[in-house]
Amino acid sequence: MKVISCLKVAFFSILLISSIFAQSSVEVIGKVFPNADAVELFGVVETSVKVPVSKIKEQLSKAESSIMFMIKNGDIIITDTKRNLLSTEKSVPLKSTDVLHKFSVSVVKELLSKGNSDYVIFEQRGVVLTVTSGTYTMEFSTLCPPMCE
Question: Do residues 138 and 103 touch, judged by C-beta distance below 8 A?
Fold first, then answer.
């Protein structure tokens, strides 16, 4: 009887741990809000890069659950969560120390839908990278490194 009780406890413990890991793996990264709040929250734009929405949608189709962005040398770098280049306009080398900004694909799609614009503007504001489409801005990314996967 004790063996059955121990097995039940072990089974439910494994089920609970699995549930916790499953919930953490579907974490949503990023938030979309009206761009009028962006200056107040993140400061003024220091550098920006304008990219056609069609290009972003193409790259989203190559990504799984997350996608990462970075402005480097006046170009936008787009990678998957393993830092594999999905797109760059120029030949810009990506170093392991370069910090990318990770967003959930679902949040980027939300921005594109709400923004309803032909272009997306990537904006460097100090250490913060915001992404704007129409009258909406996305931020609250996770930095890679350290949180790449």
Answer: yes
H/E element, 131: strand 128-133
Taking the chain (149 residues) in runs of 10, the rounded mean pLDDT of each run is 44 36 65 90 93 94 92 91 80 85 96 96 94 96 85
Whether the full predicted model's pTM is greater than 0.70, yes or no, is: yes
Residues 132 and 115: their CA atoms lie apart, in Å, by 8
Enter the tokens of residue 140.
């609250």
**Max Cα distance, the chain (Å):** 69
Q: Note whether 29 and 103 are within 8 A (CB).
A: yes
Distance in angstroms (rounded) separating the CA atoms of residues 143 and 149: 10
Task: Give the CA distances from residue 35 to residues 43, 97, 115, 141, in Å, rounded to whole numbers and listed in that order.
Answer: 12, 30, 10, 16
From the list 86, 87, 85, 105, the residue with the least C-alpha distance to 95 is 85
Residue carrying structure tokens 């801005």: 137
